[in-house]
Amino acid sequence: MFVATLFFVLAFFLGLLLGSFLNVCIARLPRYESIISPRSRCGSCGHAIRWYDNIPLLSCAVLRAKCRDCGGRISLVYPAVELVTGVWFAVAVYLGAGALQIATLWAAGFLLIGLAVMDWQTQLLPDGFTLTGILLGMMLVCTRTIFLGPHEGDVLLAKHHIELRAPGATHDGGNIFLTGSESLIYGRMAAIAGAFLLLFAIRALYKLVRKRDGMGLGDAKLLAMIAAFLGFAPALFALFVGVCAATLYAVGLLLRGKASGATRLPFGSFLAVGGMVSALYGQAVVAWYTSLFR
Ligand SMILES: [Zn+2]
Asked: Which of 147, 164, 234, 292 has its CA 20 to 30 A from that of 188?
């Protein structure tokens, strides 16, 4: 119990620290600036931020969200990103089954929170996050195959009724099958390609009908990234949640007269939030949905 609480608290603080780094990525990646140097500076006066003014959550509270040098306001998005990342890391430890699933939730959450904020602020979904995420998701799947037991996850493609009587012939003789590792890796590669092509096709169709871009290629890469971390079916659920959330938001804007039919929505932000919902509940929802057809 004590150890579990300790992990929970440590995960929260690790999330706060990485959330602080995530803020640097959010500010610099869309402008193609280095995320390593120079040190963080105040947006108003350009003064380098001291280390003790750069402590997640705490510094912002002590300084009352104002710069120590010029008194310029510090956006509340910074502490919000830190807090959400911290809470996400702690929740992942609570809900994740095993180190590998926790690692997947941490990596996916970090990238999705960053992408949600970047798309909201700049309408950009940098490749530095989406493509890196696809690679990272694939690497985690490859790591999972190491821990598969013998014949675990094997998929039988075709059964041949050839009885091999030669010495040493096994029970599987003549059957065509994918091993668990092969089906996991090939399946995930297909999921990534499928997710990308799905949004790519919707985008092309929209362009054909409306004669203008309705969606960036970044959205397709983002869904591919979600598929890399979670698989195809949970990615579809993420898309469903994203579309529902974006629609509700758009209807809200239209009702308050703050938008017209031509207003652009940062769809990537809604899709990223859908990805986070799916990371936590996607497997359960997919299992429930497929049970309806049994
Ligand atoms: Zn300042």
From this structure: 292
For 225-245, what is each residue's pLDDT tens digit? 999 999 999 999 999 999 999
Q: What is the whole-number distance in angstroms between the Cα of residue 40 and the centre of ligand 1?
A: 11
Tell me if residue 258 falls in helix, strand or coil: coil
**How far is ligand 1, taken at its centre, from the CA of residue 67, in Å?**
5
Pick the closest to residue 223 from 234, 213, 235 (CA basis): 235
Ligand 1: centre distance to CA 75 (Å): 12
Q: How far apart are alpha carbons 271 and 115 in whole angstroms?
A: 10
- Interval between CA 71 and ligand 1 midpoint (Å): 6
Pair 137, 225: CB distance under 8 Å: yes
d(CA 78, CA 60) in angstroms, rounded, equals: 9
End-to-end CA distance of the chain: 39
- Token pair, residue 235, equals 């990615």
Q: Counting Cβ atoms within 10 Å, is residue 38 exposed (0-12), middle (13-18) or buried (19+)?
A: exposed
50-87: pLDDT as tens digits: 888 888 998 888 998 899 989 888 889 999 999 999 99
94-151 residue pLDDT tens = 988 889 999 999 999 999 999 999 999 999 999 999 999 999 999 999 999 888 888 8
CA dihedral for 234, 237, 243, 245, sign (positive or negative): negative
Let me know the angle formed at the C-alpha of 90 by 88 and 92, rounded to the nearest 5 degrees: 70
Cα separation, 256 vs 250, whole angstroms: 10
Total Cβ atoms within 10 A of residue 15: 28
